[in-house]
Amino acid sequence: MHPPSLSNRSIEAYAPVTSGDRLERLRELAETLSDVRVLHVNSTATGGGVAELLRSIVPVCNDLDVETDWLVMDADDDFFEVTKAMHNGLQGNAEPLTDEMKATYREVTEANAVEIEDEYDLVLAHDPQTLGMLERLEERLPDAPILWRCHVDLTDPVEDYLAFVSAYTDPIDHAIFSRSAYAAVDVPATSIVYPSIDPVTAKNRSLEEGELAAERDHLDPLSFDTPVVTQVSRFDPWKDQFGTLEAYRTAKAEVPELQLALAGGMAGDDPEGLEFYERVADEAVDDPDVHVLTDLPDATINALQRLSDVVVQKSLREGFGLVVSEALWKRTPVIGSTVGGIPLQVEDGRNGFLVEPDDATSAGDRIVDLLEDDERRRTFGDNAREHVRERFLLPRQVVDLLEIFVEALESKS
């Protein structure tokens, strides 16, 4: 186990974008938890949505004087091959779960669990990669509530994988899901908490005109003199970049000057990422108006989402899909599929459009609808920013988490 390097964060930085009442509620909860030490555990420090959330949540909690640590598992590619198969299986599509895979999972999770030697009053473990650690943590910290945060879509799991995961859930006192439909494991208490974006990070903060121009230059040869539709996602079959390519081709038949940017990276715990990126790049290589971009700096992603005319998120499965809120926060309308947390973020006909996940033709038609109506795009953009301000910014999520911490500690005492 190892702690990632983190930047400091002040809760005061959020005053311009969130209500005073919400900030005051944070301070009240933090005072209640002032003598509590919290541990977050997950499987990667970079590249995935969980890591991105923790990079903001942990320093904010420490700024509020809620002592909070974050430890990342030490594991090799064999383990991550297994946990990627688990991820796919829990979302409905996977290879058979073998005894060898189970043994690899147990070996790595048990080895990581014994490395946690400090004392904590509450543990929050994230996603299936960490579940094998919980029995050992319960033995070491019998008075500490064990919480599990599941970021995965569990609406249609492969039964063998759900059974394997469920065998490790006994130590959980309280589970947190992104939607009620995901609560597929039997635990004493559950809560629903929507993930959030951090509006003060390089990826989401406001950009001055000069900064925007500089980042625009970094995106060359992508030109913003003609319409641009963008998808920002890690390279993963569930994100359906191939479906987005099909939607783009449908739209391009009506808007010949249209360009497509497929931007993303590879999560540290996803061994399939590079292979899938290469497949997408091969599919797009013959079209000079398609730009497959990888590992862009956060500030460049920020600019890309702002400068694009439309953002698409055509996922086939989606735990939540915070890239949707990222684009909406920047007043860019989103065409998203009706899966996971996307419909919670995209208000159909108000800040974007929703399409069925396998309907690339409708996605392409909706791209055309937005490109042909500048006034609608502006109205959708204004609606989008206010929707995210109220529901999907970091201070709201931290309030939700601290309230659950208080409840879990009271239940355990």
TrEMBL record:
Residue span, Glycosyl transferase family domain: 225-386
Domain (Trehalose synthase N-terminal) ranges: 40-183
A biological-process GO annotation: glucose metabolic process
Family membership: Belongs to the glycosyltransferase group 1 family. Glycosyltransferase 4 subfamily.
PANTHER family: SYNTHASE (CCG-9), PUTATIVE (AFU_ORTHOLOGUE AFUA_3G12100)-RELATED (PTHR47779)
Subunit structure: Homodimer.
Protein name from the UniProt record: Group 1 glycosyl transferase
Organism: Natronolimnohabitans innermongolicus JCM 12255
